[in-house]
């Protein structure tokens, strides 16, 4: 069912005239871009979660969906008092509560292959591997990280059953990469310059690369791209004046985005030489709206049309190698997004790379169209900082949800999908 959403970002603080125009024209823009996920007509009342999960008893730091079994969809959450809740999304109740970090805050949870192979990270400097098969709740192995920071681990599956685990090390700037399940240390990555503490990391691999790469955000606002095989830095860029709090990267479009304590999401991309290029242009929700209205007025058309790229670059969003390098990079490198309020805890890209969700310090979840970073919706429910967002991986589009975990000890679940399942 198509939802009605509140127009996002600064638009909800703009004048009544701006709100009127946003209601009138933004749906046409979405229609022209082929999106079916939203009906952007202004609703009389704010959107509400489909349902909420309560009972964690502490701030929610991390969320992870595991819906590979369509009859048994799960959501894992890690809390500030060291507990991992396994929520059954059919019953909307906590099916199991795990304690493996000695009461220390759990800052990251994920699964390996199946929901029964859980991996978690706590402020006790331990990464725990769990066996949840046949009702068990056992920690079968652990990795000592030595890190007292808040940098979340990440994994990358190299082949079935074998993973790389990346985590911040004991020293301030170091990142360690280990093979699982063998626990063999692959390498330790330490930058030449003094960049401060490692804040966030993401492992990835593309068809164009011969081995795994790692993106890292540091305390001084820098981004570094590492070649794991060569144990060396490929490129670097200054993305923020403040620490990089979170990042996410699209391995198909070779585009990324990061957030910090400032009022901005920084957009960046990799060129053909794997150089990080950060956009220096800022755009807000109101600025986007104003530009669209000016374009409509100058073109004297009844509806807004999506901007057309040059023939040489029409496919550059999906295949930048088909475009002239400079034109391709301009298409890939979207404007940075100016926010109403400072501070972003986490960024999450939907599995189909169409939507981006941000967890805000201002208690809000914001939804953006990933292709052009258009602000689509603001989800207002929580009464404290939103610390985590996650998109469901359910096979049925109608069953997919967006989850948000907050410092107010609640998890909100939102239906942001409206497309019908494809039939043969």
UniProtKB/TrEMBL annotation:
Residue windows of the WD repeats: 210-236, 379-424
Gene3D superfamilies reported for this sequence: YVTN repeat-like/Quinoprotein amine dehydrogenase
Pfam family, one: WD40
SUPFAM superfamilies (alphabetical): WD40 repeat-like
Domain of life: Eukaryota
UniProt keyword list: Repeat, WD repeat
Residues spanning the membrane: none
Protein name (Swiss-Prot/TrEMBL): Guanine nucleotide-binding protein subunit beta-like protein 1
Organism encoding this protein: Takifugu flavidus (sansaifugu)
């Amino acid at each position: 069912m198509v939802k009605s959403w509140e127009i996002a970002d600064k638009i909800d603080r703009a004048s009544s005239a701006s709100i009127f125009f946003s209601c009138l024209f933004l749906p046409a823009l979405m229609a022209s871009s082929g999106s079916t996920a939203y009906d952007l007509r202004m609703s009389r009342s704010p959107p509400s979660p489909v349902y909420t999960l309560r009972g964690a008893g502490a701030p929610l730091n991390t969320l992870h969906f595991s819906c590979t079994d369509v009859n048994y969809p799960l959501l894992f959450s890690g809390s500030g008092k060291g507990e991992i809740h396994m929520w059954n999304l059919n019953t909307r109740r906590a099916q199991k509560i795990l304690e493996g970090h000695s009461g220390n805050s759990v800052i990251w949870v994920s699964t390996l292959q199946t929901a029964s192979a859980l991996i978690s990270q706590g402020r006790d400097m331990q990464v725990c591997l769990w066996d949840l098969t046949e009702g068990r709740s056992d920690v079968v192995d652990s990795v000592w990280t030595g890190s007292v920071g808040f940098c979340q681990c990440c994994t990358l599956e190299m082949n079935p059953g074998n993973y790389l685990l990346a985590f911040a090390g004991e020293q301030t700037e170091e990142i360690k990469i280990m093979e699982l399940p063998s626990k063999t240390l692959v390498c330790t990555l330490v930058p030449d310059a003094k960049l401060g503490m490692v804040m966030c990391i993401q492992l990835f691999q593309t068809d164009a690369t011969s081995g795994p790469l790692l993106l890292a955000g540091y305390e001084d606002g820098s981004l570094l791209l590492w070649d794991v095989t060569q144990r060396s830095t490929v490129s670097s860029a200054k993305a923020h004046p403040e620490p990089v709090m979170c990042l996410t990267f699209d391995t198909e479009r070779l585009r990324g985005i990061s957030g910090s304590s400032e009022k901005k999401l920084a957009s960046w991309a990799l060129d053909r030489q794997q150089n990080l290029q950060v956009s220096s242009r800022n755009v807000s929700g109101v600025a986007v709206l104003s530009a669209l209205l000016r374009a409509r007025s100058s073109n004297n058309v009844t509806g807004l049309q999506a901007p057309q790229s040059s023939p040489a670059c029409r496919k550059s969003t999906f295949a930048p190698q088909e475009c002239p390098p400079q034109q391709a990079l301009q298409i890939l490198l979207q404007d940075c997004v100016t926010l109403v309020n400072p501070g972003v805890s986490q960024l999450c890209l939907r599995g189909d790379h169409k939507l981006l969700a941000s967890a805000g310090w201002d208690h809000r979840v914001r939804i953006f169209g990933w292709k052009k970073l258009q602000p689509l919706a603001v989800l207002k429910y929580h009464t404290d900082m939103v610390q985590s967002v996650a998109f469901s991986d359910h096979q049925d589009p109608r069953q997919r949800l967006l989850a948000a975990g907050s410092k107010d000890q609640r998890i909100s679940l939102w239906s942001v999908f409206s497309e019908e399942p494809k039939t043969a």
